[in-house]
């Protein structure tokens, strides 16, 4: 496990969309959670099941070496990746991005930063947009 200082040092150099050659090191539950990837840093890489093909037979197997892009990094000391090779990416990736991460194209090349904490006002606005009561916390 990396220290806070080392994680901060690694993160400051990361950019969304940055490409790393990686080796799939573990596919713990094919079709269930995703794959773990070694990209040559002191922190692990992970590809979430949501970004992989629906059929786990189409996932890269352990030992596969291919390119991965930085998709996300948050407070966890792990880099979230997406496969660069479309064979290992969900078939409807473009539609998925439009629905769940429409800002992705604009994020590419930007530094990876933790999202700021949600303020109480932002939380209220989010709840209202979901159809919940405006008076709800």
Describe this structure in words.
The protein is α+β, with helices and mostly antiparallel strands and 137 residues long. Helices cover 23% and strands 24% of the residues. The chain is built from 4 helices and 5 strands, in the order αβββββααα. Strands 1-2-3-5-4 form a 5-stranded mixed beta barrel. Residues 130-137 have low confidence and may be disordered.
Task: Give keywords.
single chain, five-stranded mixed beta barrel, disordered C terminus, 4 helices, globular, 137 residues, alpha+beta
Give a brief outline of the structure.
By secondary structure, the protein is an alpha+beta fold. The protein is built from 4 helices and 5 strands; from the N terminus they run αβββββααα.
């Amino acid at each position: 496990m990396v220290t806070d200082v080392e994680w901060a040092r690694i993160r400051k150099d990361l950019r969304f969309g940055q490409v790393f050659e990686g080796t799939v090191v573990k596919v713990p539950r094919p079709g269930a959670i995703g794959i773990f990837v070694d990209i040559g840093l002191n922190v692990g890489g992970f590809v979430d099941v949501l970004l992989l093909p629906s059929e786990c037979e189409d996932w890269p197997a352990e030992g596969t070496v291919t390119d991965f892009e930085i998709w996300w990094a948050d407070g966890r000391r792990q880099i979230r990746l997406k496969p660069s090779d479309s064979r290992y990416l969900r078939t409807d990736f473009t539609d998925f991005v439009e629905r769940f991460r429409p800002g992705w194209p604009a994020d590419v090349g930007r530094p990876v930063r933790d999202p700021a904490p949600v303020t109480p006002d932002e939380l209220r606005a989010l709840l209202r947009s979901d159809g919940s009561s405006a008076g709800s916390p």
